[in-house]
Amino acid sequence: MSVREIIKMGNPVLREIAEDFSPKEILSEETQSLVEDMWDSMEAAGGIGLAAPQIGISKQLAVIRLQEQSERYPDMKDSEDFVIFNPKITVLDETEQGFWEGCLSIPGLRGYVERPRNIRVDYLDEDAKPKSIEIDEFLATVFQHEIDHLIGRLYVDRMKDITTLTYEDEMVLESAEN
Ligand code: ZN
Predict the structure, then answer these.
(1) Does pLDDT of 173 surpass 60?
(2) Which parts of 102-160 are beta strand (E)?
(3) Which among 94, 146, 168, 177 is annotated as catalytic?
(4) Could you confirm whether 146 is annotated as catalytic?
C-alpha cells in the first residue's frame, strides 16, 4: 500500500483513452494492490474519486467513495465504496443538473458543470463480476467525472461557461451543489 503521485492537467496521460482490463488482469495481485494504492492516494488527497490515469496509469479503473465529513465537498451523504473497471455509461434521463466540480488533477480550482441527472453504469467489480447500477444526483455527476478521465476528458472540457472557473479560496463553499 502506498500513496502515488497525482498527475496534473497538461500531462498527456490525462488525455489518453485508457485501456480495458481483462477479467484475469482484474484478479491479479498487481491490480488488487493497485486498487489499494488508489484508495490510499485518494484519501491522502482528500478526494471522493480517483481514476487510474490520474496516477499515470492509462487503464479503465476508478474508485469512488463519498464521505459525509469531506472537507472538499460538504453536505454530502456517505456512499458505498465503488471500484469500477471498464465502465460504460447509459444516460437514463438527459435532464441536466449542475454542480461545482473540482479535480485532484486541477488543484485549487472549481467550475460549474451540467451533466445528465440519471445514468446507468455497467462495469466489472473487484471480483471481475459484471455489475449494473442506476444512480442520480451528485453521485451521478461523480461517476461521469471519473469515467470521463478514462476517455481523456476533464471537467473543464464540459463547462458551458468558462467564466465560472474559480479558485476555491475565492469561493464561499456553503454547499457542493448549486
Ligand atoms: Zn478528476
Answers:
(1) no
(2) 109-124, 130-136
(3) 146
(4) yes
